[in-house]
Amino acid sequence: xxxxxxxxxxxxxxxxxxxxxxxxxxxxxxxxxxxxxxxxxxxxxxxxxxxxxxxxxxxxxxxxxxxxxxxxxxxxxxxxxxxxxxxxxxxxxxxxxxxxxxxxxxxxxxxxxxxxxxxxxxxxxxxxxxxxxxxxxxxxxxxxxxxxxxxxxxxxxxxxxxxxxxxxxxxxxxxxxxxx
Length: 180
Fold this sequence. Notes:
The chain is α+β, with helices and mostly antiparallel strands. It has helices at about 5-25, 65-75, 110-155; strands at about 30-35, 50-55, 55-60, 90-95, 100-105, 105-110, 160-165, 170-180. The protein has one domain (about 30-80, about 85-180). Keywords: Signal.
């Protein structure tokens, strides 16, 4: 092989190696992931986790998570409050003529009273549903704020979100990089 061609080939190989090394140096750095578990999983434990730990902190939790769970839990499960529970007996009977007669706590209600009773019950149910939705909305706001706070703390320390992926349960994974 011609010596000039051989020297030129060596220069090309060296230049290629230097360029590859430069690209590798740009990609080098530290990586960290922030896992947000999603709204359902967050009801029972931490809402997220840093991997590896960020400033000695691996779990991301809400400050008053137990308090939110106490407020939401009776609305989502069949757990009953402690103490005496008064039952309201409601009986509906149909007569031969097809008329429905409503009895509440053993008292027969007139048609007007029965209509009023049904309206009150519907209003109570609507109010309970709205209260539940408000509590859930407050909880979701707190979770969102806590995840944003964690991301902002990492960004202030020089971490940059380079990729984000969603999980099937509604969670997210943030891949973060901190350059050299």
